[in-house]
Design goal:
By secondary structure, this protein is of the alpha/beta class. The protein contains 8 helices and 8 strands, in the order E-H-E-H-E-H-E-H-E-E-H-E-H-E-H-H. Bound molecules: D-xylitol-5-phosphate and zinc ion.
Length: 216
C-alpha cells in the first residue's frame, strides 16, 4: 500500500490548520510531523502541545518523527497528544529496544529510523517488532536538502529482510523526495513517502501532490 506523508516542516507555522487541510483535501495519507530538539539535530521545531493542537483538525494518521535525544522520556507525552505512529532514531538512545517496546505499550505504531550513515545491521534485532522503518535519505535537521543516493541500497536490504523473514513493517523514506527520487525509492521497495519542501514550497501544493502520485 503506497502512502504519501507531507511533512509540515515546510508548511507555514502561522497557518498550520490551513496547510494541513490543503494536503488532506488533495490526497495525503499521513501528516508527517518533525520533532527536533536542538541536540540530536541542529534545529528546534515543536513538541507534544503542537501535536495535541493538530489532532482535532485532521482525520489523517499523525506520523511523528522524533529527532531528539533520549526519546524514551517523551514517548508517553506524544502518544497522549495523539500520535498514531512514533519514530525513534537508532542513534538517539542506547536502549532502542526498550524505546520500541514503550511505543508499542502505548498502543501506537512503532517506527525505527536510521540516519544515512547508519547500517541496517544496527537495527536488525528490533525489525520484527517494528510497524515502520524509516530510511533517512538526507541527514536530519532541515527541509530542502538533496537526496543521498547511497541510502537506496538500505531500502533494498530492508525489503529483502522483510520478504525473507515475513516482517510486517512499511518502509518509509524521508528527505529530498521529488518525483524522480520517489520513483527510485519505490523501485527499491519503499512504500511510504515523506515530502516537505517539494509540496509546500510550491505555488500549487495540489499540483505537486498530483505529480508525486503519478510516479507512485
Ligand atoms: C528532515 C525531516 C524531513 C523534512 C524533509 O530532518 O525529517 O521530514 O521535512 O524535507 P524535504 O522533503 O524538503 O527534504
Ligand atoms: Zn521527518
Amino acid at each position: 500500500m503506497i502512502k504519501l506523508a507531507p511533512s509540515i516542516l515546510s508548511a507555514d507555522f502561522a497557518n498550520l490548520q490551513r496547510d494541513i487541510e490543503l494536503v488532506e483535501k488533495n490526497g495525503a495519507d499521513y501528516i508527517h510531523i518533525d520533532v527536533m530538539d536542538g541536540q540530536f539535530v541542529p534545529n528546534i521545531t515543536l513538541g507534544p502541545n503542537v501535536v495535541k493542537a493538530i489532532r482535532p483538525i485532521t482525520k489523517l494518521p499523525l506520523d511523528v518523527h522524533l529527532m531528539i535525544t533520549q526519546p524514551e522520556n517523551y514517548i508517553h507525552a506524544f502518544a497522549e497528544a495523539g500520535a498514531d505512529i512514533i519514530g525513534v532514531h537508532a542513534e538517539a538512545t542506547p536502549h532502542i529496544h526498550r524505546a520500541i517496546q514503550m511505543i508499542l505499550n502505548e498502543n501506537v505504531k512503532a517506527e525505527i529510523v536510521i540516519n544515512p550513515g547508519t547500517p541496517v545491521a544496527a537495527i536488525q534485532h528490533v525489525l520484527s517488532m517494528c510497524d515502520q522503518v524509516l530510511v533517512m535519505t538526507v541527514n536530519p535537521g532541515f527541509g530542502g536538502q538533496s537526496f543521498i543516493e547511497e541510502t537506496v541500497a538500505k531500502i533494498k536490504e530492508l525489503a529483502q529482510l522483510k520478504e525473507k523473514n515475513g516482517y510486517h513493517y512499511d518502509i518509509e523514506v524521508d528527505g529530498g523526495i521529488v518525483p524522480k527520487t520517489a520513483r527510485i525509492c519505490l523501485e527499491a521497495g519503499a512504500n511510504v513517502f515523506v515530502a516537505g519542501s517539494y509540496i509546500y514550497d510550491a505555488d500549487s501544493p495540489a499540483d505537486q501532490i498530483k505529480a508525486l502520485k503519478e510516479v507512485l
